[in-house]
Every structure is written in C-alpha cells, then in structure tokens.
Amino acid sequence: MSDTRRGLLLGLAAYTIWGGFPLYFPLLEPAGAVEVLAHRILWSAVTMGLLVVVLGRVPHLRALLRSPRTMLLLTAAALTISVNWGTYIYGVNNGRVVESSLGYFINPLVTVLLGVLVLGERLRPAQWAAVGVAGTAVVVLTVDYGHPPWVALVLAFSFAGYGLTKKTANVGAVESLAVETAVVAPLAAVYVAVLVATGASGFGQHGWGHTLLLMSSGIVTAIPLIAFGAAATRIPLVTLGLLQYLTPVLQFALGVLWFHEEMPPARWAGFALVWVALVIFTVEANNHRRRQLRLLATTSTAA
C-alpha cells in the first residue's frame, strides 16, 4: 500500500470516528454531561500519558514543560477544548445532534474570521462572501429555532479558538493533548470525587459494561487523534481539508436519519446556505492554492 493511500485511509478513519461520536456518548447515560466530560478528561489524561511514554515523546514533553509561554497557551487550549467537549456531549445527549453538526460545518469559516479579528489577517473577496452567506444562515436558523443556535456557535468558536492556540503553541499533538488533559484533570478528579462522596456518581453503579464504556473515553479520544496525525504527514492539506467535512456530514445524517430530529423547511434552508458558503470557501481556497503553486513554479523557472 502506498504511503498516500495509507494516509487517506487513516484520515477517513479519523473523521469517521469523530462523525460517529453521536452514537457513542448516549451509551454513557444515565451519567450527566458534566460527569461524562470529567471522565473523558481523566481517562484521556491517563491514555495520553501512556502514549507519550510508548511513542517516545517524553523528551518533547519535557521541552514544552520548560517553556512558560507554551504552557500558558496549552492551558488556554485545555480550557477551550473542555468547553468544546462539554458542549458537544450536552448537545448529543439532549437531542441536538443536527445543531452540533452545524458547529463543525461552520468551524472553517469561524476559523478564518478569528484570523481576521485576532491575527489581523486579510480575507479575499470570495472568503468574505462565504462568511457573509454563513452569517445569513445563522440568522435564518435563529429565526427557525426561536433563539440563536448556541450549541453550534459555542462548538464552532471554542474549536476555532482551540485551533488558534494550538497553532500558536506549535507543539506535537500527542504531548500537547497530554498536557492539556493533565492541566484540567485535577478539576475533573475533584468533581468525580464529590459525585462519589454524595452518592450521585454513575461510575460503577450501572454494571461493568457502563463502567468500561466510561473508561474507554480516553481511548476513543486518542485513536482518531493518532490516525489524524498520521494522515496529516502523508496526504496533501487540500485532501485533508476536504476530508474534514466528513465528520459534520455523518453527524448531520445521524441526527436526521438515526435520531429522527425535526428538520422543518426553514432549517433545511439555513443548512443549505451553510453548504453554499462552504462550497464558495472550498473552491476559492483550492483555486488560490493552485495560483500560488503556478506562481511559485514560474518564479523557480525564471530563477
């Protein structure tokens, strides 16, 4: 198997697993969203710690621990990803799978918008058009829902903020997530301990199957992350960028076809606008990349 084909399969695996999360988190009920989040953080910290050792990333971990700037950025990343995870678990376990998928559909557009607001980047006209169409979609969906789609907006902005801090920190994915989960693990441990002490914990109260499912949340978090990291080094960024849409597509399909969530005409119209915005955004990004490559080739030939 060629390296590119292996990378494509790994990318498909990562995004398919993330897309299937709406089937996994309901299995953790009757544990509440915050308790599930706490267990995900704790077991992810354990899993990522083991991976740091197994994959030989200990020297890299020590290096980033010695950098106050990097640790500050990873602490910010830990807080934003905790908000993202908690919101997603709440949405999926409260009949808002379709709205959760919206958050990841609009995430690329929110990311470029944060680039403008935080980094001072400049958007090209087609990118502004895509952001404008997406903004119109949010207005349409706000009218349809009777309130802003808060779950989608929190997911989109928290994940975009997470991506921004990770990009600025510029460290490896495994040791980064190990630090992030370790930073918030004490808070998660205290919360779980309080639940156990007050008899409100679901851990160990609903059979071994439920207990093992809670413990598996660390592995479920790690597997797609590793697959994504391996894919990113083997396939072009354009391919990886297109694959990212697989996750919200699967989540949306599960919400409509599996969980039978309501989709009135206005909601379909809002999502259609989002998809139009993504088509504009993706086509423009690919065309811009081709122009840059042609310019680079011309410059190299002239030299």
Could you tell me the radius of gyration in angstroms? 20 Å
Largest sheet: none
Strand content: under 5%
- SS-derived structural category: mainly alpha
What is the number of strand segments? 0
Please write the string of helix (H) and strand (E) elements.
HHHHHHHHHHHHHH
Mean pLDDT: 88
- Report low-confidence residues grouped into runs of 5 or more: none
Q: Determine the fraction of residues in helical runs and give it as a percent range.
A: over 70%
Distance, first to last CA: 37 Å
Number of helices: 14
Question: Outline, from the CA principal axes?
Answer: globular
InterPro entries: EamA_dom, EmrE-like, RarD
Protein name: EamA family transporter RarD
Subcellular location: Cell membrane
Membrane topology: Multi-pass membrane protein
General description of the model:
This protein has 303 residues and is an all-alpha fold. It is 82% helix and 0% strand. The protein is built from 14 helices and no strands. It has helices at 3-19, 21-24, 33-54, 58-65, 68-92, 97-119, 125-145, 150-169, 173-197, 207-215, 217-232, 237-243, 246-258, 265-302. α1 (3-19) runs parallel beside α13 and α3 (33-54) packs across α11 (217-232). The longest helix has 38 residues, at 265-302. The chain is globular and about 70 Å long. The mean pLDDT is 88. Keywords: Cell membrane, Membrane, Transmembrane, Transmembrane helix, Transport. InterPro entries: EamA_dom, EmrE-like, RarD.
